[in-house]
Amino acid sequence: MSASAQRVKDSLAARVARLAARPVEVQDPAILELSEQTLRDSVVAVARQQIGRRYVFGGTTPARGFDCSGLVKFVLAALRLGVPRTAAEQAYSGLAVVPDTSELRPGDLVTFGNTTRAHHIGIYTGEGKFIHASVKAGKVIESSITRRESPLIRKLSGARRLLAFNNTDN
To answer: What's the pTM value of the predicted model, to 2 decimals?
Structure first.
């Protein structure tokens, strides 16, 4: 293998390793003093406060509006947790979990798209529902995770657990 080909191979391997699991940035260590359940409930509560806010491509604030990843970033930042900006990048934050409602916990991120890229992301709220900034609805809404697919509604493709503590409080 040539040196050039080896550099490309090494670069790709490093990129895959970085994308495999990105840690969530804890911007305030005091947040870790909360129980996992309290933190999950807080994520869902902050997300629910955004329901009805308008959809705006590239939006990241309640005043301006949200796109899907802007909503996720805003909700987590409100709790002093940092994630990347785009749905494609957020889809690699935290730990991968089975995207099945029997395995998901409130506060998990759910991704929609295909097997190679997340095109949409939301926050699982429990009972088979999630909150997201919907292009189709033009606002932040809570939807069933099993909603019918269409050209504007993509298939559930993955889930990420950002809030996984090493304690027994689930």
So the answer is: 0.82
